[in-house]
Design brief:
flat, Lysozyme, two-stranded antiparallel ribbon, two-stranded antiparallel sheet, 48% helix
Length: 330
């Protein structure tokens, strides 16, 4: 009987210790859920909580105010905002890359009279990757088909594919966007046509007796397209609101380049790279439009970017912030 009593006492003591530990852990978890930090807008950022992103009743897109209260538009934007908000790694990568590429894209859009918001088209098309390609054979940051690229003055032949040239492909995209705006007079319609083509959008506007592309019944990819642009714009303009808290050092640093003018063929780009003090890999990364191990100019003149060697290292943290809204410095 005494032994049994000791066993009971031991059991009860063990149970009490386990219960105490569980309560302690529960308290810790509760504390984590309820803990908050403050973002740059002065609002609380909740940690370890999945919150539905706030859906605005209207948005400003390319200077046009778009009402989002209609059920399909509200739910369309909700889907894209939720997707970008909780696809954390990809969305964070987009902001980091934008620090390098938006300074290149924005002046070209402005010079061509294209609204600044169209930089977000490049974001959703390629994730700001100049080497991106699709199963439909669209290539580059602006995902241009070969015919569209050539119409925009790009070279797509032999050892060169200028769809992968950030500056030149942006110019070609602007050429298309200007033609589409002359046709529709609405930037939302222009954006939809970039995905589906002007022929498809014009035909469906007529067949469905609709006034704008947002009212059309289209394939899912095109139906989502404009909302994806609007959604990523919302996040880029206020990242902390959607849970993205970055510092300047997290953004990808701009890398300065020197240009080498080339008017004759280069038979071995690896040797050319070595002569210019860089690796073949770096030559290809900074000149993604070079599609072979050699360059055949075909009588044309090209400018090859040679990166500044000291800019290739993160020996010191990045301090260049293209858009101060992207970062939160405590």
């Amino acid at each position: 009987m005494k032994l049994l009593s000791k066993q009971k006492i031991s059991y009860l003591a063990g149970a009490f210790i386990c219960l105490s530990a569980c309560i302690s852990l529960g308290s810790d978890d509760s504390g984590k859920i309820n803990s908050k930090s403050v973002g740059p807008d002065g609002k609380d950022i909740h940690q370890a909580v999945t919150l539905n992103p706030e859906i605005p009743t209207s948005v400003l897109f390319c200077g046009e105010n778009i009402d989002i209260t209609r059920y399909n538009m509200h739910e369309g934007l909700d889907r894209e905002l939720s997707s970008f908000t909780y696809f954390h790694s990809t969305t964070m990568l987009l902001i980091k890359r934008a620090n390098r590429y938006f300074p290149v894209i924005e002046p070209i859009l402005k010079a061509n009279g294209i609204p600044d918001d169209f930089k977000y088209l490049a974001v959703i098309e390629s994730h700001l990757d100049p080497q991106a390609s699709s199963p439909a054979r669209a290539v580059g940051m602006w995902q241009l088909l070969e015919g569209t690229a050539k119409d925009g003055g790009l070279v797509v032949a032999g050892t060169v594919d200028e769809r992968r040239h950030v500056k030149k492909s942006t110019e070609a995209a602007c050429s298309y966007l200007k033609k589409a705006y002359a046709k529709y007079g609405s930037w939302a319609d222009v954006a939809a046509s970039y995905n589906a083509g002007m022929g498809r959008i014009s035909g469906e506007l007529q067949k469905q007796n609709a006034d704008n592309a947002l009212d059309l019944w289209l394939v899912e990819e095109t139906s989502r397209y404009v909302y994806r642009m609007i959604a990523i714009k919302q996040i880029f303009e206020n990242p902390s609101k959607y849970g993205f808290v970055l510092k300047a050092k997290d953004l990808y640093k701009p890398i300065r380049v020197n240009q080498v003018k080339v008017s004759s063929d280069i038979q071995d780009l690896a040797s050319f790279a070595q002569e210019n003090g860089i690796t073949y890999a770096d030559l290809k990364r900074f000149n993604t439009w070079l599609r072979d191990r050699k360059l055949v100019t075909g009588g044309r003149t090209y400018y090859i970017d040679i990166p500044e060697l000291k800019d290739l290292f993160y020996n010191t943290p990045n301090t260049v912030v293209h858009d101060p809204r992207w970062v939160f410095e405590q």
